Amino acid sequence: MDESGSEGAEWTQEHFLLLFARIKSSIQDPDRTLAYSQSLKNMDWKEVAFSPFSAEACQQKWTDVMHKLSKTRTLTELVNVAEDIVSNPAKNYKAHPEHPKRPPPPNAFFIKEHSTAYQMKHPNLSRQMVLKKLVRKYNKLPAEEKNKYLDKHKQASMEYKEAMQMFSKRYKPSQKTTETPEGVSPKPVLSGYHLFCQEQCSSTSTVRGDSFAQSAKRWQTMSDKQKEVYNQRHEELLSQYLDEMNQYSQKFSKVKQREFLKEYRIAKTMTDQKRKNKFPGEPEMPNRFGRTIFYKQQMLLLCKKVPNSRERLSTVNKLWKSLQPEEKQRYKMQASEEVVRYSMELQNWFETLPEEQQVIFWTKNPMKVKYLKCEEQLTYRPSDSEDELTQDSTDGELEEFCKGNARWHLETRVAIDCYCLNSAAKMDAYRNGL
Predict the structure, then answer these.
(1) Could you tell me which InterPro entries the record lists for this protein (predicted)?
(2) Range scoring the smallest mean pLDDT among 102-116, 125-139, 193-207, 266-280
């Protein structure tokens, strides 16, 4: 293969990856554990060469690549690193050449000051051992002597902050924006807390890291009502984004719709639906069953003793079955008290809503109707044995349980309709017909 044929050829990503693969396959077994320089001498570049590049061209290109890599590893490891850099350029992104460097820690100033003299005094020690010895020596220094290096670190930190401010003004960071379809709002941040930090950081001229830390401290001192404002705004932005993306996906076929929603991670989950149905300031529903409270407590207590979640759940299940009826009754009473407290909080909150919002709440949350103290409230209550239904329950027990739930759901739907129509006569007619 003559070299002239490779002079005009350009190296593409595919050529680089092929070169790395052929180098790896050409490394002999005895050379795989040798240092880089020794194994490189044993490399047969004629075996590595491939069209349209000669052996000399491949060797020269590998030399060019190696100028950018550290040579403290084996040849096999270095080839893997080179493959990763070429295949994932974004992952191996380099910082801006003018980006200020963070100041070293205080002990680094001490090491820099004494390393040369210590190395000359102990020539047989490696550089790594010299560093370890000096670190130990610094740690044993009295506080008065350490202050000298602490002051140097503080001075370097102040200079770094000033340099970062100058750098931020000169090179304004480009905002990371996800490519959303035309006519769709940008994807909002993760939560109300992130929305607050985003607004605070954009309104200050300090270093981004310091500004974020200040925003985090400010968020911790805010009241629940102040936080709720940002949480509600985040919910509105997220709901608007999801609605627009789902509406935009209607333009495609069903197959493309699934691909589109999967690409943008907009699958309609139960969590999304619950979040959409939850109103701002609405009380959180507690655990309604004693067994659920017991499971939640024990899963937390046993998390270190039994790390595997499945094994831990099995252990907790056995513990629940071994409890005496009196102990189970205590957890059921605790759940009942939580439900009563929740019912009172929900009723107080519900009365603060405008009539239009009350109708919307009834329509979207039929399962919560029974917790409101209203004239149309229904008499159904979940039995104490509901949380006892397990895989060991008989078909008759399950059938009876399902019948009760089905009738209650029907009555609940009737209550909502009558409430919206504000017709007591229709309520009586429906009840007589059930």
Answers:
(1) HMG_box_dom, HMG_box_dom_sf, UBF1
(2) 266-280
